[in-house]
Amino acid sequence: MYPPAWIPGVPGPGLPPPAHWGERVGAWMLDLMVIVAPMYALGFVDIVRSDDPANADPGPFFAVGVAYFLVMGFYQLYREGRYGQTTGKKVLRISVRRQADGRTLGFGMAFVRKLAHIVDSLPCYLGWLWPLWDVRRQTFADKMCSTVVIKVAKG
C-alpha cells in the first residue's frame, strides 16, 4: 500500500504528512457537535415543554437524545475503525492509521485507542498537547497504540 522506505519528517514508513494539532482539535470539536448537540437540544425541548422549567426532570425527548448519543458514538467509532475517519476527520481531511503499514485500525483497536486517551488526560492533559512538539504529532494514546493521524487527499 505504501512504500516501505522511511521518509524523514513523516509519521511512518512512507505515510503522508501528519495532521496538524489544530486539524485534530477541529475534527474533535465537529465530532462533539455531531454527537452531543442533538442530545442537549432534545433535553432542552423537555425543559421548555415542562410546566415548571426550573424543576423539570429529563423526559422522553432527552431519552431519545441519549439513545442518539449512544448510537452516534458507536457509529463514529465504527467509522474510525473501518475508514480511519469520523465525521469531523472526514470534513478536515485527516485520518487515523496504523503507524506500521498505514492501514485502518479496525473497530476493536479504534475502541482501545479511545480508551487509551484516558492516559492523555492524566498528567494535566499533557498528552493532548504532546502533538504540538512531537515529531510524529502523536498523543500518548497514539504512541501506546502505534497509530498516527495523517492528512489525506481530497476525494
Describe the structure.
This protein is mainly alpha-helical and 155 residues long. It has one domain. It has 6 helices and 2 strands. It has helices at residues 21-49, 60-83, 87-91, 107-121, 126-129, 140-145, and strands at 94-98, 147-151. A two-stranded antiparallel ribbon has the order 1-2.
Number of helices: 6
Any low-confidence stretches, pLDDT <50, length ≥5?
A: 1-10
User: Main sheet?
Assistant: 2 strands, antiparallel
Molecular shape: elongated
Tell me the Rg in angstroms.
18 Å
Mean pLDDT: 89
Distance between the termini: 18 Å
Biggest sheet strand order reads 1-2
* Helix and strand element order: HHHEHHHE
Relative strand content: 5-15%
Write down the domain tally: 1
- Structural class by SSE content: mainly alpha
Extended strand count: 2
Fraction of residues in helix = 40-55%
List the main descriptive attributes of the protein structure presented here.
mainly alpha, 155 residues, disordered N terminus, single chain
